Amino acid sequence: MAELLDYASDLKEIATLTTGTDSLDRRLGSALYALRAVIPYDLAVLYRLEDDVLVPQVSHGPLANDATRGHRLTLGKFPTVRRALDAGRPVALTEEDHDSEEGDPYDGVLDLPSGHACMVIPLLSADEQLGIITLDRAACETYSPQAVALADVYGQLISTALMFAEQGQLLNRYRKQLERQNKVLTEPKGHSACRKLELATSPAMVHFVGLAKQVAQSDLPVLIQGETGAGKEVAARAIHEWSSRGERPFVSINCAAIPENLVESELFGHKKGAFSGAIKDRQGRFVAANGGTLLLDEVGDMPLSTQAKLLRVLQEGTFEPVGSDKSVRVDVRVVAASHVDLRAAIEQGRFREDLYYRLAAFPLALPPLRERKEDLLELAEEILRAIAARGRGPWTLSPSARDYLLSYGWPGNVRELINALERASVLVPQGTIEVSHLGPTIAEPSAVSSPAKTPLISLRAAERLHLERALDASGGKIYGRGGAAEMLDVKPTTLQSKLRKHGLR
């Protein structure tokens, strides 16, 4: 009776391990340690089943060493182990099993005598084979039926622990997805994208806004084409806000700013081990945008291999993460943006024609800032108000500064205007912004002020401003066509060195 009470106490200790809060491997290691008081062994190894291979996860006992910790078992070579898994019951191996053609699972790894005590304990969930536990003793005997019965109970407890762990990992992935979506939803957006567009009074922008509002009420893919810095992301966000998805996530990805070999992973996610550096599962942007809108910025720079997978998502709403054979279904409205001529890219073989027609179900052309000068001053005032909302300023523009802004060609469009006013707000903590505060990076012969009236800055500061302008104009892209290195006519490695010198990203 006392022995049964001891067994009950040990099993109770094992049972508490299924609800522990420390790491799974530590709990499993503790469980193997506790089992030794119930069923003696010299080596216990817990294997997880991955495809048709048993991979050791934890081990315990005097015979545990580096060789046993790295010893994998292929099920096809061990029919006895396969039968134990299929039957769902522990099997105590006999001397005949050890002397059979399949041999012992630890032949060549451990020097165990023929006929030694050995047991295989299957680990199962309701509808899945999880793995096995092997128990081995150097003693030449067979585990008793009582030990096998106890091992059956133990195996069920460990299976429960593994099942809870997998469910916990799944819930954790969902939690991280929701946190990511919540972050997207609660990030400060400054002034509403809708308000920024609705301030427009120029005929070109009024026409654009009218079309954008109309298409926002549908789920059609939208292609926004316009020059770099013209405000394509703001337009895409406005379409999202005007749509029925406005309360759901808005997620963007700059296809030109991500290395070619990582674009697919960023969009669709990947499984652990899918490629070098994939140390854990990762959800992609499509999952983060589920139920909302995904902006594919600079879609013209997307690799052809990824374009094929994107086409399938647009057609079927499903995709497979990198390294996975399981399809994921999403409900995402896609808005694409590009500053390159996609029709020309099709002729050059750089863009799929079938993908273009999917993305351009409703094309929109965003006019550059120089074609909507009627909006420029109101837009500048709105930018200054947005900066002041962060606890600085306020500012006003002098008449000469206003003339200067209207006379400039703005090759960098709205992004260049924002940067010019941001720099001016640093030079003038509050008060009136003059022409001299707007910086030499926007000066040109047609400007109101002459170069003699523009204050000189150091060569290092001028180089930094020039680099900033190049990054602004390229949308942060360094390599390839339309990149900052091409604009400045320098090698990408040289440009990266200069960016590091100035602390720029």
What can you tell me about this protein's structure?
Helix content is 44%, strand content 14%. It is α/β, with parallel strands linked by helices. The strands form 4 sheets. Strands 3-2-1-6-5-4 form a 6-stranded antiparallel beta sheet, sandwiched between helices. A hairpin with a 2-residue loop joins strand 1 (43-50) and strand 2. Helix 2 (24-35) runs antiparallel to helix 6 (145-186) and helix 8 (203-216) crosses helix 9 (232-242). The protein starts with a helix and ends with a helix. The relative contact order is 0.07. Residues 1-5, 185-191 and 443-455 have low confidence and may be disordered.
Summary tags:
505 residues; alpha/beta; five-stranded parallel beta sheet
Q: What can be said about the biggest beta sheet?
A: 6 strands, antiparallel
Weakly predicted, low-confidence segments: 1-5, 185-191, 443-455
Beta-strand portion reads 5-15%
Strand order of the largest sheet: 3-2-1-6-5-4
Work out the oligomeric state of the chains in this entry.
single chain
β-strand number: 15
Helix content: 40-55%
The coarse overall form would be elongated
Separate helix tally: 20
Q: N-to-C terminal Cα separation, in Å?
A: 73 Å
What do the pLDDT scores average to? Answer: 82
| Backbone structural class | alpha/beta
Report the C-alpha radius of gyration, rounded: 33 Å
